Amino acid sequence: YLLAKHHNSEFEDKAAYTTIFGLLGNFYRQTTHEYEKALPLYLEEQIIFEKEIGEDHLEYGAVLSNIGTTYRLLGSLEKALEFERKAVAVTEKHHGTSSFQYGQRANNLALTYSKMVGHEMLADSFYQISVENVKQLMGEEHPQYALRLMNRAAFVYRLDRSEEARILQQQARDILAKYIGAGHPIWTRLNITHSKILWQLGEIEEAKTTLT
């Protein structure tokens, strides 16, 4: 980290230089889950973009999104919302609403809204946008489509819309069954949520079977 800062002047391509911060931030956030270490790296990346590269760069939205996601993981939802809203706006400007990047940012924004009381309609709206986005780009058999269905299913389940959640979860299960199997962390998480939904619907035996 310090070495990277020391050699800032040696990088002609400042965007390539900031990649050092982004990749290290991703390591701490996604691999070791040390969010407190990831955040300052992402914030340093943001500073370099704003001072030396410009906010019109195509990757600026990704920088903002990483910061917003990390704030959410740290429980700072208002800060997460601030960065994720801006990330969505910047991504729409540079990549358009039909891009995969836009769908990702919409999904992240929905995740934050879903954790905030009084923002349920906004969360649902952005979940729908993210699901439709990947459906149009990758089709209804793609794992990414299943993952976004899972996110929306978990959300509507918390709103006591259990039958709707069951349909979304089953769609996700049918897709992911072709790619992953028992023992995979995503499959385990999917089954736990599916079992909760079935239990709430009164389908006790099927709920138990899902967990075995």
Folded structure, characterized:
With 212 residues, the chain is an all-alpha fold. The protein contains 11 helices and no strands. It has helices at residues 2-6, 14-31, 35-53, 60-73, 77-95, 100-113, 120-138, 143-158, 162-176, 185-200, 204-210. The protein is elongated, with a radius of gyration of 19 Å. 35% of the residues are buried.
Distance between the termini: 46 Å
Largest sheet: none
Helix content: over 70%
State the helix count: 11
Q: Judging from the principal axes of the Cα atoms, what is the shape?
A: elongated
- SS elements, strand count: 0
What gyration radius follows from the Cα positions, in whole Å?
19 Å
How much strand?
A: under 5%
As an assembly, this protein is single chain
The secondary-structure element order is: HHHHHHHHHHH
Global structural class: mainly alpha
| Contiguous runs where pLDDT drops below 50 for at least 5 residues | 1-7
Look at the structure and give the mean pLDDT: 89
Quick synopsis:
The chain is an all-alpha fold. The chain has eleven helices and no strands.
Q: Topology of this protein?
A:
Elements: H1 2-6, H2 14-31, H3 35-53, H4 60-73, H5 77-95, H6 100-113, H7 120-138, H8 143-158, H9 162-176, H10 185-200, H11 204-210
Helix pairs in contact: 2-3, 3-4, 4-5, 4-6, 5-6, 6-7, 7-8, 8-9, 9-10, 10-11
